[in-house]
From TrEMBL:
GO terms for molecular function: ubiquitin-ubiquitin ligase activity. Its main location: cytoplasm. It comes from the Eukaryota. The lineage of its organism: Eukaryota, Haptista, Haptophyta, Prymnesiophyceae, Coccolithales. It is found in: Cytoplasm; Nucleus. Its EC number is 2.3.2.27. It catalyses: S-ubiquitinyl-[E2 ubiquitin-conjugating enzyme]-L-cysteine + [acceptor protein]-L-lysine = [E2 ubiquitin-conjugating enzyme]-L-cysteine + N(6)-ubiquitinyl-[acceptor protein]-L-lysine. Belongs to the ubiquitin conjugation factor E4 family. This is RING-type E3 ubiquitin transferase. It is an enzyme of class 2 (transferase). Pathway: Protein modification; protein ubiquitination. Keywords: Cytoplasm, Nucleus, Transferase, Ubl conjugation pathway.
């Protein structure tokens, strides 16, 4: 029995009136019928397993179902299935490739998975002694499942093969070659083979067959549901665009071609019918796939998987750090073991957050242990995007704050209690997230959007953790690891500038479009296709503007609270950071109060999370935090591109008029502005005093006189702060492209002495010149 819409009468029979009050009762009735069928199926399977003659054939049947449904784990399976469902509604679409000959139905896979989940129930409890019987080598054997081609958690295919057969000379040679290519040390010969059992107990059979069925059944169906929901949203947008166009045509009255009006009415009706049918499809998925009892049982199962994974990593009694050498058995596990836990939790936060809300905080303990352990242990999970997926649930556990509009679903304060009681998280979570914020930058071929999405999650988590004393202390402790924290701040600066640029560019374009739309006669004079296209573009720009403005607000808020800490603020003023911080803040002032700021005056700015006065207050608060530090003023005035004291004065005026800000803070900002004016004048006088600087004293990167001349392995001499800034994003020599680290830099003491002598001689010459009596003509 199945409620899924493919080739089924369920959508129309069970959900005839999707707008009426009976939808919830229809869902409940359908779920009850499905549960009865699944209980009957479980009873049949349980009886078969009691029969020795039937047990082995039944396990083979289940394993065969897994092998024959490998197509369900492919990346394009959800897309193809969604296209197939849409094609059944709208044959005008191109027919998608069919996966039916090689894939079982969602109904079959979900019912089979539910049955296996029930078989695992007796050993799901945290204190169950039976869980100790789970044999991890099951996944490395060919006993039931063919998993040789699966990606491993942190071992290559060559490593896994060699570990299983270390006496094979060809495998040894290939293994050594790959290790040398990767710049790693191969294991010595003579290591024992990775032990794989030849037979497995019933507990292992239940546990791992369920794991595979969850991967190919429930998780695959959840991906289809997500793709269907995404396409439903797009189709709804298409309907709204056509309704807008129809309204425009009707406003034209008799001037609108009747044929065009009729055509648009037909399209609106077509999309309306399609959206109604899609809504029924989604309800069918919700009935069976999002059944709370099924999801709760799945949560209990994955809690067991979480405990098993952490135990297989062989942690020390205190939990972290994990051993430097990754246990070979853990390294060779298929990646889906961990990835499935992450994806299931992600799907729950998106589609069924109420199921997570029903958990007690202590029921989250094993999940948080898993997440902290592997976010903090990149050597154990080579795929950073797998680790990053855990940020979805961690962000969900952060309670909604007054500034969290548009940030997705959040759990309640009750669930957030886990942060107060989890000892491992208190010590390791915040530093691990701050390090991972940097690591995600260097993750290969995934899109920039993914990187920002994960950082968006992390900024929200860190913002909340900053308010908790033990996490606050851990974050301050991370700043003492200077090299790591400098990289973290460098990424914050990069993200701030990029997200601000993206948001303001989109806002300026929205402003322009809104002005054009205000002239209705001129706007309506455009052709129908042009209006439709421009409205689509406007929708996209509004989405992007909101997304990047949200991220801008979050990152600037992080700058604000980090810089408020007396121990942390001076780290921002290290030579390789001070100039970048100053340039960023100057640039933001230009954007918010400069000459072009009028282009950002859009209608309903709150729709885009754009509150310019509030953002200006955040930026100026960061300036106020840094104002007492002598390095900051010097860095601000050296920014020739964006520094303008008039922008600070405008900011003072805006803040005093529109924001509630202490008078003392305004005085600090005013005094800093005056200090910058004086420093700028002093700098110009010193520059004039130096006159023409010999080229050998100039940094080859910035062509400015060097303060800390540094010799590179390539033979070039540059200023230390400039090369260190370059190395934060790219650990190569900019001239030879060879690998370069800070440790490989050599101070050029002779050059520094010569520059000092040059400065002294010019200063002396200038002083002598100023002491000469003025000749009277």
């Amino acid at each position: 029995m199945s409620a899924f819409p493919a080739n089924s009468p369920v959508p129309k029979l069970c959900f005839s009136d999707i707008s009426g009050p009976s939808v919830e009762s229809d869902l409940a009735s359908l779920r009850m019928a499905l549960q009865l069928e699944q209980r009957a199926l479980k009873a049949i399977v349980t009886e078969l397993l009691k029969n020795p003659a039937a047990k082995e054939p039944l396990f083979k049947l289940i394993a065969g179902a897994c092998r024959l449904n490998q197509v369900r784990q492919q990346q394009y399976f959800p897309i193809n299935e969604t296209q197939r469902l849409f094609y059944s509604l709208d044959p005008q679409r191109s027919e998608p490739p069919s996966s039916m000959p090689t894939a079982s139905s969602d109904g079959f896979m979900i019912n089979l998975t539910a049955t296996l989940l029930h078989l695992c129930e007796p050993f799901m409890a945290p204190n169950s002694p039976h869980a100790a019987k789970i044999d991890a080598s099951y996944l490395l054997s060919t006993h039931r499942l063919a998993l040789e081609t699966e990606t491993r958690l942190c071992a290559t295919a060559d490593e896994a093969l060699y570990w299983l057969q270390p006496s094979n000379a060809d495998l040894r040679r290939r293994y050594v070659e790959k290790k040398i290519e990767a710049g790693e040390e191969p294991e010595a010969e003579g290591m024992p083979a990775l032990a794989v059992s030849t037979s497995f107990g019933t507990i292992s059979e239940y546990f791992f067959l369920t794991m595979r069925l969850m991967h190919l059944g429930i998780l695959s169906a959840l991906s289809v549901f997500g793709e269907l929901a995404r396409n439903a949203h797009m189709t709804k947008n298409e309907q709204e665009l056509r309704e807008t166009e129809l309204q425009r045509l009707r406003l034209m009255g008799s001037g609108a071609p009747s044929a065009l009006v009729a055509q648009m009415q037909a399209e609106v009706a077509r999309y309306s019918q399609m959206n109604e049918a899609i809504s029924r499809f989604l309800l069918c998925y919700q009935a069976q796939l999002l059944d709370p009892s099924l999801l709760s049982l799945s949560l209990r199962y994955y809690r067991l998987v979480s405990r098993w994974l952490v135990a297989t990593a062989n942690p020390p009694p205190e939990g972290l750090p994990l051993p430097h050498d990754v246990p070979r058995l853990f390294a060779a596990l298929p990646e889906f073991c961990l990835d499935d836990v992450a994806n299931f939790l992600k799907h729950l936060t998106n589609f069924a957050p109420q199921v997570l809300e029903q958990l007690q905080p202590d029921e989250l303990h094993d999940y948080v242990t898993l997440m902290v352990t592997f976010i903090a242990s990149p050597r154990y999970v080579k795929n950073p995007y797998l680790r990053a997926t855990f940020t979805k649930l961690l962000r969900f556990l952060v309670p909604r704050s007054e500034d969290s509009e548009g940030r997705g679903s959040h759990g309640s304060e009750r669930l957030a209690a886990i942060f107060h009681t989890h000892a491992l998280a208190k010590k390791h979570l915040a530093p691990a997230l701050m390090q991972f914020f940097v690591d995600i930058e260097f993750t290969g071929s995934h899109s920039a959007h993914d990187k920002y999405e994960f950082r968006h999650e992390m900024t929200q988590i860190l913002e909340y953790l900053w308010t908790l004393p033990e996490y606050h202390a851990a974050m301050v402790g991370f700043t003492r690891e200077t090299a790591s924290f400098v990289r973290f701040i460098n990424m914050l600066i990069n993200d701030s500038i990029y997200s601000m640029d993206e948001a303001l560019t989109k806002l300026a374009s929205i402003h322009k479009t809104q002005l054009e739309m205000a002239d209705e006669a001129r706007w309506n004079s455009q052709g129908r296709q042009q209006v439709h296209q421009r409205l689509q573009t406007l929708q996209q720009e509004e989405t992007y503007a909101r997304y990047f403005m949200q991220f801008t607000n979050e990152v600037q808020h992080m700058m604000k609270y980090l810089s408020s800490e007396p121990e942390v603020a001076p780290v921002f003023m290290l030579p390789e950071l001070a100039g970048r911080i100053a340039s960023m803040l100057n640039y933001f002032l230009v954007q918010l109060v400069g000459a072009n700021s009028k282009q950002l005056k859009v209608k309903n700015p709150e729709k885009y999370l754009f509150n310019p006065a509030k953002l200006l207050l955040t930026v100026c608060t960061v300036i106020i935090h840094f104002a007492p530090l002598p390095e900051f003023g010097q860095a601000v005035v050296k920014d020739d591109r964006s520094f303008d004291p008039s922008n600070m004065r405008k900011a003072l005026k805006v803040l005093s008029q529109k924001m509630s800000i202490p008078h003392e803070s305004l005085e600090v900002l005013d005094a800093f502005c005056a200090k910058c004016v004086a420093l700028k004048q002093q700098g110009e006088e010193e520059e004039a005093e130096l006159g023409e600087v010999p080229e050998e004293f100039l940094c080859e990167i910035t062509m400015e006189i060097m303060e800390e001349p540094t010799l590179l392995p390539s033979g070039k001499v540059v200023d230390r702060k400039n090369i260190c800034r370059h190395l934060l994003s790219d650990e190569t020599d900019p001239y030879s492209r060879q690998r370069l680290t800070v440790e490989m830099l050599t101070p050029d003491h002779d050059m520094k002495a010569r520059i000092a002598a040059f400065r002294a001689s010019r200063k002396k010459a200038a002083a002598g010149s100023s002491n000469q009596p003025m000749e009277l003509g």
